[in-house]
């Protein structure tokens, strides 16, 4: 249906490949650290950052559509406008994504955890594979996420436009958008029997869905000052796992290390 010149790794294919690499070199109990991307690894929401390539008035009009149409439809429309009306191709979009700042200390978290043989890292995000891959490659850390990247697949068409597709189509979960239920991803991972424990790091209410699937021995790490932290008091009793709150990566790594090496 589409002429595609550059395809980015589909979220359902990549994790299986990466898990195969890890299984050949490691055995025994393992801990999975699953991390959100926007406002958890990178400081800014990547979709809003890319929308800043639009003229101010048009950007505000697009952002007004988010409550009604959702984030995936928002970024799809933004990318379409950038390419068709403003002649912005994938290379410019990639440069914008690569310029996003990491949450302070988060690169330290990722690199330190990746050095622990019993730990496997993955990303669970409602962003997309194009944005995430570009950013990880900019910091040369894509190989550290051996557990995979679970997100909306994206590709670059022959025209140079970026096309984003839904990871799934679901209507059962009210906490998550139609295109990605983070809880279903976490449930699949925890039920695989591969991980003795799961640590989930996030900031938003769709991360709550994933955290509700965690077990008593698992850990939810909620970023202070962001959406989920403000609402967790009303939902804390729904979580079976222990809960940590963190401000930045420097604090997060100090909180996590005793739990992982214990």
From TrEMBL:
Recorded superkingdom: Eukaryota
Species of provenance: Drosophila yakuba
Xref: SUPFAM superfamilies: HAD-like
One Pfam family named in its UniProt record: Put_Phosphatase
Active site: 36 (nucleophile), 38 (proton donor)
InterPro entries in alphabetical order: HAD-like_sf, HAD_hydro_PyrdxlP_Pase-like, HAD_sf, Pase_PHOSPHO-typ
Entry keywords, A to Z: Hydrolase, Magnesium, Metal-binding
The family this protein is said to belong to: Belongs to the HAD-like hydrolase superfamily. PHOSPHO family.
PANTHER family named in the record: LP01149P, PHOSPHATASE, ORPHAN 1, 2
Cofactors demanded by this protein: Mg(2+)
Annotated protein name in UniProt: Uncharacterized protein
One GO MF term attached to the UniProt entry: phosphatase activity
């Amino acid at each position: 249906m589409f002429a595609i010149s550059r395809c980015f790794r589909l979220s359902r294919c990549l994790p299986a490949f990466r898990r195969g690499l890890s299984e050949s070199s490691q055995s025994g109990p393992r801990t999975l650290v699953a991390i959100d991307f926007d406002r958890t690894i990178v400081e800014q929401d990547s979709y809003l950052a890319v929308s800043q390539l639009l003229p101010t008035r048009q950007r505000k009009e697009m952002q007004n559509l988010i409550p009604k149409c959702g984030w995936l439809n928002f970024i799809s429309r933004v990318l379409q406008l950038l390419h068709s009306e403003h002649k912005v191709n994938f290379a410019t979009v990639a440069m914008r994504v690569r310029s996003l700042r990491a949450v302070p200390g988060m690169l330290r978290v990722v690199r330190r955890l990746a050095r622990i043989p019993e730990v496997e890292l993955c990303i669970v995000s409602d962003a997309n594979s194009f944005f995430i891959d570009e950013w990880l490659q900019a910091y040369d850390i894509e190989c550290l996420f051996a557990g995979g990247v679970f997100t909306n697949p994206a590709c670059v068409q022959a025209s140079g436009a970026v096309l984003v597709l839904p990871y799934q189509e679901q209507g059962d979960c009210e906490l998550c958008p139609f295109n990605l239920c983070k809880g279903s991803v976490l449930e699949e991972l925890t039920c695989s029997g591969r991980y003795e424990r799961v640590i989930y790091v996030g900031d938003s209410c769709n991360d709550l869905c994933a955290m509700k699937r965690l077990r008593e021995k698992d850990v939810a790490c909620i970023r202070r000052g962001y959406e989920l932290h403000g609402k967790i008091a009303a939902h804390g009793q729904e979580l079976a796992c222990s809960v940590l709150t963190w401000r930045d990566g420097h604090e997060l790594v100090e909180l996590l290390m005793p739990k992982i090496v214990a």
